[in-house]
Specification:
single chain; alpha/beta; 7-stranded mixed sheet; two-stranded parallel sheet; 15 strands
């Protein structure tokens, strides 16, 4: 009985390996034997999740022909992968990918390390921050005081607590978008919201247009749901959406759904202008495409002048109310541990989402909802967000300074909000840098996690979520990783102790 559960075609594997070569490792890397370079390439594809675990690889002769190398080179690469635990083989069944015993299975999103496991590792894998105390504690103290009335009910609120739906509706109304509580469904984080909308509007096989690059976890969610992703390139730098490209894709591909991040896009940090928002909504309406606007970063505007208003929400341009579905969350802005998100949509859409929820998670935790109600009705949310913005401004300045000093050849634009830098890694492979950097003691996600089919190999996403000393140490370790990649010495590295100089 075969041990593999899927296959990777020869052409696809060759393209994925070719995207790594496009990222480059510098001329010195040519000293690495061809078989070693091939084995490292396959290993990175497995670690990135771009080639699944338990995927059958092409036969040696077929892959050698596709890559224009000798069969001996492929055979030696496969043998190296078997020795390292990344490949298993059986006569008659072929060879399939694996991971060494004790190592976690890879995923396209980068899972956070537990605090106990972090040790000397600087974890920049996730754009997340500690809670803005004392506001988290105060919020749950307020929630505890309001718990007795809720505790006397069945506790089952599939659309969310009425008080939270009311508070969220009032916040949208205050932002210039009149909203009723019937237009709100509370979810378990923004991912719960996107998953619910995707299940309803884009079941397996439907086309979904996505920005390119886009948020890694949403891309993975949609892949696993069987949707067909249609990438739409972003404009250069922080210019936001490429509207001619969007109009072309919406008209030519007729995607059922489109997913966008208008406010401090993850990973690029771009902020869409009001004109762009209006034009994209009009194009989606004309194409019959439902536009999902993720605004989880919207409250993290860092450079607004006193009295300056941010762009209006994307849904403000949906005058008919049937084109835009908005997704929000407390997790990015306030604290990742407060897993409360929401959907704002037409009442009929909310009713359908609530009706379908019985096949998912039924509802969101009551205590967390009460805590968010307290924040939004007591003034605590606005004070906590002001505190958050001040801290993030300092973190942004520290990371920008550290990268520019330690890695002057790396290129990036400084966003006016959000939590992330989208960094072009000086012509090097982002996947290789990320792999080596983790063994040197800093975790960063490489560009292909945010792309479709191996795109953005030359990029890294670097969050600005640590203070100046840690930012400098992280940049130092990234610089050391880049040097290792250039030299081709990217194997067998030990983790550098925190505070050590490299």
């Amino acid at each position: 009985m075969p041990e593999w559960t899927s296959t990777v075609g020869t052409g696809r594997l060759a393209r994925l390996l070719g995207s790594q070569d496009a990222g480059g490792r510098g001329p010195e890397a040519r000293r690495v034997p061809a078989y070693r370079s091939l084995a490292d390439g396959v290993r990175l594809l497995v670690l990135e999740g771009r080639v699944p675990v338990a995927a059958r690889l092409p036969a040696e002769r077929e892959l050698a022909t596709a890559l224009s190398v000798s069969r001996t080179t492929v055979a030696a690469a496969y043998e190296a992968l078997r020795t390292e635990g990344f490949l298993e083989s059986r006569r008659g069944s072929g060879s399939w990918t694996a991971v060494p015993a004790g190592r976690e299975l890879p995923a396209r999103g980068l899972e956070p390390l537990s605090p106990e496991a972090t040790g000397s590792m600087i974890d920049l894998g996730n754009a997340a921050l500690p809670a803005p105390e004392p506001w988290l504690t105060r919020a749950f103290q307020g929630a505890l005081a309001e718990l007795p009335p809720a505790a006397r009910t069945h506790g089952d609120f599939p659309a969310g607590l009425p008080s939270l739906r009311q508070a969220l509706a009032e916040r949208y109304t205050a932002r210039g978008v009149p909203t009723m509580p019937e237009q709100i469904m509370v979810t378990t984080g923004a991912m719960g919201a996107v998953a619910a909308v995707s299940r309803l509007f884009a079941p397996g096989g439907e086309r979904v247009a996505v920005e390119h690059p886009s948020y890694a976890n949403v891309l993975q969610l949609m892949r696993e749901a069987g949707t067909r992703l249609v990438p739409v390139p972003m404009a250069e730098g922080l210019a936001g959406w490429d509207l001619p490209a969007w109009r072309h894709v919406l008209a030519a591909a007729s995607p059922r759904l489109a997913y966008v991040v208008a406010d401090f896009h993850n990973p690029t940090g771009a902020l869409a202008s009001e004109a762009q928002r209006g034009e994209l909504v009009a194009a989606a309406r004309a194409a019959g495409t439902v536009l999902v606007a993720d605004e989880t970063m919207a409250d993290l505007a860092l450079d607004l002048a006193p009295g300056e208003a941010p762009p209006r929400p994307v849904c403000a341009f949906d005058h008919g109310g049937s084109t835009v579905i908005t997704v929000g969350s407390a997790s990015k802005t306030f604290w990742t541990g407060l897993r409360i998100g929401w959907v704002r949509a037409a009442p009929e859409v909310i009713r359908r989402l609530v009706g379908a929820r019985a096949q998912a998670d039924l509802g969101s935790p009551v205590m967390e909802q009460l805590a968010l109600v307290w924040l939004m009705t007591s003034g605590g949310w606005d004070e906590a967000i002001a505190l958050r913005r001040a801290g993030v401004r300092e973190y942004r300045a520290a990371m920008v300074d550290a990268l520019r000093r330690r890695l002057p050849d790396w290129e990036f634009h400084v966003p006016s909000g959000g939590l992330t830098l989208w960094v072009r890694a000086g012509g090097l492979s982002g996947s290789r840098i990320a792999d080596v950097a983790e063994r040197l003691g800093v975790r960063v996600p490489s560009g292909p996690r945010f792309g479709v089919d191996g795109a953005f190999e030359g990029y890294l996403r670097v969050p600005f979520v640590v203070d100046a000393p840690l930012a400098d140490e992280a940049a130092s370790r990234l610089a050391a990783a880049a040097r290792r990649v250039i030299e081709g010495g990217d194997a067998g590295l030990a983790t550098t102790p925190l505070g050590a100089t490299t």
